[in-house]
Write a structure and sequence with these properties.
single chain, 185 residues, mainly beta, Porin, 2 helices, 12% helix, elongated, signal
Length: 185
Amino acid sequence: MKRLYLLILLLCTVSTAVFAQRVALRTDLLLWGTTTPNAGVEISINRHFTMVLNGAYNAWKFGNDMKLNLYLVQPELRYWPCRKFEGHFFGVHGHYAYYNVGQIPFFSGMEDIIYRGDLYGGGITYGYHWVLGDRFSVEAVIGGGYARMEYDKYRCAGCGERMGHYKRNYFGPTRAGVSLIYFIR
């Protein structure tokens, strides 16, 4: 009989822990504004920490040889001072992207140039999370840090004339977003 009670207690404890865990699906509305489909998942680690994995992929073809092709992966560990998914949070993020962008008529200096290469680095994040209801919420996030870019520069898409290989270190804003979030329970 003791074993049966212990088994019931164990099952209740495990089921409570499993259902108390929260998983959130997310999408960044600012990236959608650049025609970049994106999605992410945020998993609760404990009361104060969550882990986020965001990804984006843009393979659209535009007229007049404009390119805005990329894929991006951005993991982040977040600390919530009060409780997870409520209010302020701080994080540490990493990022990696492969990009092929250029011939964008509304950016000065990019009308006739194509940049193709890799970007990687990391930084720190601050954000705020607003609960809209039982399953939906919105958050705003900004971040700063380091990015290393290694890329080739091309004169135009048609001629494919390579102008050179470049490496650049960047310190400054590395993250900005407004995300719509849906909780899975």
